[in-house]
């Protein structure tokens, strides 16, 4: 399980990173399906999520201790380099011996490192689709990541919108493909 989880995490980070590298200079201010975020805001959000991983997983720190350390602009003048550093450090933290078994303090309480990694992986997948849409790239997600994310979101799909992290689920036709179902769970219309 841990090897598969780490593989999916690395795959999601790679996929998102490829899209970050594809952003053209004039696209950073473009809108995304996350109506309040531009492309830069979206990349900043996902990069910021990765920055939390080392202190929470490796150092055992809490959200309260870190405060607003990763609020605001974490991309600076080189968004690609900021993404590369943050995603590399996050994956290294999760891949460290025993990291997935550690308890991490999240906003909703204590959780196993593996659950935290799973959540961030699925979130990265959905936001990769958002980024594709924002820059006009092919938005077809890898099947392995779609299947992983559906399994991650399914147990708490009804609570996603209530969390404030996603829009309300979208109804889809019977027989909709897996990517369409995943995106609908996260409040996106494919």
DSSP summary, beta strand count? 2
Helical run tally: 8
- In the CATH hierarchy, the architecture is Up-down Bundle
Q: What number of domains?
A: 1
Strand content: under 5%
What radius of gyration results from the CA coordinates? 16 Å
How would you spell out the order of helices and strands?
HHHHEEHHHH
Overall pLDDT level? 93
- Termini separation comes to 30 Å
Query: Structural class from helices and strands?
Result: mainly alpha
Low-confidence stretches: none
Question: What is the strand arrangement across the widest sheet?
Answer: 1-2
Superfamily (CATH H level) name: dinb family like domain
CATH class call: Mainly Alpha
Q: According to CATH, what is the topology?
A: Four Helix Bundle (Hemerythrin (Met), subunit A)
- The percentage helix is 55-70%
Biggest sheet statistics: 2 strands, antiparallel
Instruction: Using the alpha-carbon principal axes, give the shape.
Output: globular
